[in-house]
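Hello again, I could really use a second opinion on something today. I've been staring at a protein lately and its backbone has me curious. Can you walk me through what the tokens say about the fold? Take your time with it, there's no hurry, and the full record follows here:
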Amino acid sequence: YLQVFLVEKAGRRSLFLAGLMGMLLSAVAMTVGLALLSQFAWMSYVSMVAIFLFVIFFEVGPGPIPWFIVAELFSQGPRPAAIAVAGFCNWACNFIVGMCFQYIADLCGPYVFVIFAALLLLFFLFAHFKVPETKGKSFEEIAAVFRRKKLPAKSMTELEDLQGTEEA
């Protein structure tokens, strides 16, 4: 329930980035904790705290925020298809991680979370450079942000386009 209040106060993009960075640091801490466990018994506590922090950061950012952003990036027509594709990708990736984690852990040993840290770094960089803030913006404003980046010559929004076809 905390997420409902945070998302409107802090913004979607900032929470998403903070969650990704927190998960990245937690994955690094888990790797360090697991790698040094044989030398320092108290590293098991570091690993446990890192796991809890990983889950907390996931629940603050990358867990719920993509669903907000996907719903806000697409207009009413393509929104159901976009959410279906996002849901499929989400569950497919969950399935792949669930099925492959044990094999990867057997291969990588205590360094298994380095893979997650690398992926989280890539996700963070992508979100930082490509994902706009959608808090308090209409679909038309968000679409205008993408048009300025990709198609500066096009000035008509989807809504204006639809209004133009109704008049004709």
The chain is about 80% helix and 0% strand. The mean pLDDT is 85. Residues 79-108 form the longest helix (30 residues).
